[in-house]
Amino acid sequence: QLQLVESGGGLVQPGGSLRLSCAASGGTLDYYAIGWFRQAPGKEREAVSCISNLGGFTHYVESVKGRFTLSRDNAKNTVYLQMNSLKPEDTAVYFCAANDYCSRYANEYEKDYWGQGTQVTVSS
């Protein structure tokens, strides 16, 4: 029932910023924990961040702390990932996924509650 669509990716120079959106339909997004994952070519999908459905707690992997920020806009049923000070190693396809709880493991998220991904390329 719940469907997620990522958007906001693109090409940006190192040090630049992008804001990714995870827009939901078919459900109320604030009911779910929303995790962001990324996958670079030839690499495994890795966790980036998560915003909890309890108390609005946020989690970030060490490599993005201080640069990425999660937020919710419940009126728009959307979660945003603000990405600042982007580095070439941030280049990947970014996915959002919904779950009952935040987890660093992609396979613990509900199988049907993933978006299609949006490409982020950081290059000069």
Walk me through what this model shows:
The chain has 124 residues and is an all-beta fold. The protein contains no helices and ten strands. It has a six-stranded mixed sheet with strand order 2-10-9-4-5-6, with no helix packed on it. Strand 4 (33-39) and strand 5 (46-51) form a beta hairpin. The N and C termini lie far apart (40 Å). The mean pLDDT is 94.
Secondary structure elements and pairings:
Elements: E1 3-7, E2 10-12, E3 18-25, E4 33-39, E5 46-51, E6 58-60, E7 68-73, E8 78-83, E9 92-99, E10 118-122
Parallel strand pairs: 2-10
Antiparallel strand pairs: 1-3, 3-8, 4-5, 4-9, 5-6, 7-8, 9-10
Top keywords for this entry?
124 residues, four-stranded antiparallel beta sheet
